[in-house]
Inverse folding.
């Protein structure tokens, strides 16, 4: 597996992976998934994340396998893996890289807002739930969890 920082030219691949992953999620209703996936239309937000975050891509044989990002301060902003590649260690490797980057900035802890689906992965990676979030987008409730890990 090869890792590299994302560039704006990677945006189409990133959005394709994100949308497919969200729409395939079985822990949310169709309506919730549609609202969540609609963020692919906010191109300026995505470009900003690529530009301003430590936005890491994982490739295998030139195929984008997953991505993760370390946002401002101590926030794991994103963690997504190809929907057909779960359980192969891709997310673990991405998260390890994110945590190593955080340590270079002398961060002592990381936070993440994770989906119902990702909670187990983050718990196995040493994170614990701080609180349950009640996000409302376009009148639709999207439950997720604020999690924390001491590095």
């Amino acid at each position: 597996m090869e890792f590299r920082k994302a560039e704006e030219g990677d945006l189409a691949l990133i959005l394709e992976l994100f949308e497919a992953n969200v729409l395939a999620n079985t822990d949310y209703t169709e309506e919730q998934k549609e609202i969540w996936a609609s963020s692919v239309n906010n191109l300026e937000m995505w470009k900003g994340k690529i530009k301003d975050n430590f936005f890491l891509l994982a490739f295998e044989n030139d195929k984008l396998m997953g991505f993760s990002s370390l946002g401002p301060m101590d926030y794991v902003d994103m963690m997504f893996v190809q929907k057909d590649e779960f359980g192969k260690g891709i997310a673990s490797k991405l998260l390890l890289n994110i945590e190593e980057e955080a340590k270079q900035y002398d961060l002592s802890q990381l936070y993440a807002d994770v989906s119902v689906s990702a909670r187990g992965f983050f718990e196995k990676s040493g994170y614990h739930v701080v609180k349950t979030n009640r996000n409302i987008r376009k009148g639709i409730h999207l439950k997720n969890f604020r999690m924390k890990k001491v590095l």
Summary: The first helix runs from residue 11 to 24. The helical segments are 11-24, 30-37, 43-52, 90-104, 119-124. The two ends are 24 Å apart (CA to CA). Strands lie at 2-5, 54-60, 63-70, 75-81, 109-115, 128-137, 140-150.
